[in-house]
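It is worth pausing here to work through a concrete case rather than discussing structure prediction in the abstract. The textbook approach is simple: state the sequence, then state the predicted structure, then interpret. We follow exactly that order.
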Amino acid sequence: MSLPFRAPVALSELSRRHGGATFGRDCMVSRVARIGSAGEGDLAPLLHARHIAQAQAATGRGAVLLVARDLMSDARVNALPRWEHAEAAWAFAEVLDACDAPPVDPTIGEASVIAPGVFLGPRVVIGARVIIEPGCVIGRPGFGWAMRSGEIRAIPQLGGVVIEDDVYIGPLTTVDAGTLTPTRIGRGTKLDAHCHVGHNCDVGQGCLIAAQTGLAGSVVVGNGVQLGGQVGVADHVVIGAGARVAAKSGVIGDVPAGAVMAGYPALPRLRWLRGLARLYKKEA
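Step two, the predicted structure:
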């Protein structure tokens, strides 16, 4: 998914309006797109070092980049056509303000049940046979902020939410809207009460997520994952298919497919239990 500008604009003109400097070819851009899918005519934000390889592929498809200046120490970035900015997140927010993103009413599939007191924001798409319990908030802006010289402003969250068929969402759960593309809950996944799914998350099919679990922004959860109650997952973490995470664990790094994790920071469960046993033995 990409968001169109109200009119095409030169990269050099964006720099003139919002600050920073351009390097490499100047060109017209028509849309803002995620770095993983950006191509000809797209401007894609590169705000984290983990996306540099994707940025290289995007420029190969004809995209240009809005790059955070603190990434310029990486030689791979210096070779890419870009708009470089010391406060790239702030510039990104200003660019999104210029996009043509009219609100779209939610759509709800056949035989779905939306309980009283549920809020559905714009660009929310709900599949068939979905149950959303009372008090849920689906599609409000995610927790995305830019800072500049002591100021704080919201980064527009325009991507909406997609909830696939046969999903269950328990009471008082929140699913935030994505920034450029939808936050997604995969088919057949079940979320307990008081869960939080941050903006840009992609939750796979057939997952079980217990109460008070929180996923920070841009977390990817594979198919068939099970998360116990009060699990916390840091932003941009990838949890592989079939993994299981014990209750109250804190996941701060990627989890391999099929792994069983526990503790804070989350470790393979048997390693965590052995560590606890050694600790308690010392105290005895």
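Step three, interpretation. The mean pLDDT is 94. The chain has five helices and 31 strands.
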